[in-house]
Predict the 3D structure of the following.
Amino acid sequence: MSQNLESWDQPKKAISLEDMDKAITELRKARDEYAEASKKSKDLNVLVKKFESEVISLMKQAGKKRYIAEGIGAISLETGLSVQTPKTPEQKESFFAWLKSEMGEDGYLTYATVNSASLNKLYRDKVEEYAERGEVLEIEGLDQPTSYTKLSLRKA
């Protein structure tokens, strides 16, 4: 389907190679700066996690849930629970059955969500399959697809 959208006639404008080179140079520069900042951010995040772990350990050893370091900040510890999403078909089937029995149809529809990346892959695969048969894919419950342009820039 995206091939059909790309083939539509679009107004063309004369662009100089100099303008194109300049724009790509600026993009390369911005991406390199972003990559450098991202790496620094990741390195700093590792450092933050290390110090967080150290403070948590010290707080637990001291038997404290709250602590105020005058002029620096207040720390508090909270304990919570977290679960992973069901992974296997059997786990999903069991969880969805529990949702329906425990929370009804509304609860089921609220929590039985679809991963966006998986949905888009399914859609692209089905579009190709239907196109090979000369058919147009329409899936009930989904809006019409939107087209986007993705730019790829690699080092030369």
Notes: DSSP finds four helices and two strands in the chain. Residues 83-142 form one domain.
